[in-house]
Amino acid sequence: MIFPLPDLDEPLTGGFWHAAARDLLAFPQCASCERFCWYPEPRCPACGGPDLPWTEVRPAGTLYSWSVVHHAFLPAFAAQVPFVAAVAAIDSAPGVRLVSRLLGGDPAMDAPVRVEFGWLRLGEDRVRAPFLRRVP
């Protein structure tokens, strides 16, 4: 799939992409209060703690919301429409909502999903990324 690629060396999000490169799902978790902080911030939004190590979590969740995309707002998506953009609550990371593409199966509220990894490509460059798939 062709897609504008993320910056793997961006300080706040690089850990997410480096984990995905190993087919692992990880989110920053405060070392002080243990809250997951997604989308990443420099300090924990709950307690202000500065130590937010990347924590691997189970790749399972629940479908929280979705939208069927029919119009490509970026040229990179033109060949991909229609697709389902989905939000999943990650079971082992309370408060985390992961936005990705839903693969296989029609969306349904509270449906179980698993995270699986695939390639995003832009020309010769590519990166591993998480996708959501309905669990039968």
From TrEMBL:
InterPro entries: ChsH2_C (IPR002878), NA-bd_OB-fold (IPR012340), Thioester_dehydratase-like (IPR052513). It comes from Planobispora longispora. Residues 54-117 form the ChsH2 C-terminal OB-fold domain. This is ChsH2 C-terminal OB-fold domain-containing protein. It holds the Pfam family OB_ChsH2_C.
